[in-house]
Amino acid sequence: MSSFSVETGVLKSVVVKAAKGASNNKFSAITSLMNVEVANGKIHVTTTDSNNYLTVSDRIVSGEDAQFTVNVDTFSKLVAKTSTDSVTIKVSDDVISFVGNGTYKIPIQLDVDGSPIKYPKHDINNPEKSGVIKTSVIKSVIFHNKPSLALTMEAPHLTGYLCSEDAGVISADSYNICMSDYDMFGKTVLLQPIIFELLSMSPDEEISYKLYGNNALFENANIKLFSNLMDGVEDYPVDIIKGICSEEYESDCTLPKNSIISVIDRLSLFIKDNDINGVYMTFTEKGVTFESINGSGIETIPYQGSNGFQNFTCCVGVDSLKKQIASHSGESVNISYGSDRTLMIKDDNIIQVISLMDDPRASKQ
Questions:
Q1: Would you tell me how many other CB atoms lie within 10 Å of the CB of residue 41?
Q2: Residue 331's Cα: distance from chain center in Å?
Q3: Which residues contact 350 (CB under 8 A, 6 or more apart)?
Q4: Who's near 128: CB < 8 A, 6+ residues apart?
Q5: What is the mean pLDDT of residues 271-289?
Q6: Which SS3 state, helix, strand or coil, does residue 211 take?
Q7: Beta 176-180 vs 350-357: how paired, if at all?
């Protein structure tokens, strides 16, 4: 029997983070498990969703080397509800004794041959590409690009982030595009969104990466993530998106971000279940008028700035407009208009594009 002690705060931190890597897929038993290893004075907690293996590490107080695999739900809930300053875990052949507020026995998960389940050790020794990415950039991509990811599987490649070597990070669905000017890896890869979500938990700013074939390894002192890259890079409409994002607009205006979101929220109260979920935006000399399609609400936001003004009316999806405005980081939003296909929101290194809806009034004429 081996045992070790760890500060409860440290254990909670690593377990909460590692649990996010477990998908609890009923068709794959390993996705509902958590592997805990203590070696050389550190604790390493590993989970998987079958495509990604996440290991979160931290220091321990004292103890012997040990390794065990337990049910992630039971173990993580017990850790979360523990209120003592430290925990001692004693490991036998088929059970751990968790000593905190009391003593709790949790079965060790065994392989079909009766031996303890051990997770594979992953490494990439001869990478095709390697380098460093920054946690702050990953968080920026999540904030700006995530709202434009496709949520359904009609086009599976659109559910991932395309990290392009010459066009930055792209996300797109049927109505939205976001292009962030970050060169992440020096080559074009398609990443599952969960990869960035897991990496964003790193307390350190820098994360090293290695790429080889269809595999990627991300690592620093506190986190290690071995992942499979997504298929479908060749299906991603990069050239079309780059063309849309490079279009020139003759007119643009600046509006306060919070005012736009507030107007959308108020107008949404008057959109009924059988209504088209859109609003009219009319660019007037003094501001932008927002009007519900059914005519039950209308409100104008004055300009903070205006260039190349032209009278222009378009119909925009409420959900698309709100999530793109919400994912803009500034207090003011610069909107380029005049195209019969799109509106564009542009920052120093972020381009967001919103596709316009067909005007319901035109179809009635």
A1: 12
A2: 22
A3: 144, 178, 179, 180, 181, 328, 329
A4: 187, 211, 212, 213
A5: 87
A6: strand
A7: antiparallel
| pLDDT at res. 275 | 64
In this structure, the chain runs to a length of 365
pLDDT per position as a tens digit, 204-243: 999 999 999 999 999 999 999 999 999 999 999 999 999 9
Cα(210)–Cα(251) distance, rounded to whole angstroms? 44
Which has the closest alpha carbon to 56: 193, 201, 195, 194? 201
List, for residues 102-157, the tens digit of each pLDDT value: 999 999 998 888 888 888 889 999 999 999 999 999 999 999 999 999 998 899 99
Overall pTM > 0.85: yes
Residue 296's alpha-carbon distances to 279, 299, 311, 315, in angstroms, are 11, 11, 22, 15
- Closest by CA position to 119, among listed 52, 198, 65: 52
Closest CA to 354 of 309, 322, 330, 312: 322
**What is d(CA 294, CA 278) in angstroms, rounded to the nearest whole number?**
9
Residues 6+ apart with CB under 8 A from 169: 141, 145, 161, 162, 163, 179, 180, 182, 184
Q: Helix crossing, 72-80 with 8-19: angle to 10°?
A: 140
